Amino acid sequence: MSGRSGVRRRGAAADGFRMRLVAVVVASVSAAGCGVLDVPVEERWEARAGFPGCGGVALEQGEDLRERAVGEIACLRRSLESGEDAELQVTYSTVEGAPVRDHYRLTPQGRLEVYTDGTDDPYSDGKWSFAECYEPR
Fold it and tell me: What is the mean pLDDT of the segment spanning 67-82?
């Protein structure tokens, strides 16, 4: 096995974990109509209008978001049900221990946005990514 293919596998594992984490939050607000865009979005994140916060959660390796962030996920649900906007930050580690930050935002239009900062993960592409659900329920 070459070092390069091992890096690809670790990156794929981290991407798989990230997508499972996104799925947990999306499922927690019963989302439908989701899409994913794999484009650099750091500038959009930096220029955003801040929303009221539902807090931040730092997950330990292997820790389940649904168990660790019960109050924070409930905050997102309440915001969705009341038509309010909100943000939640979730930090987790890749299998190699690199931190990755997901920023979940419920917009005034009722859309769930997920901005992922992978810039501190040396085994990833080192970029930001973006996913959104147009009809979270």
Answer: 91
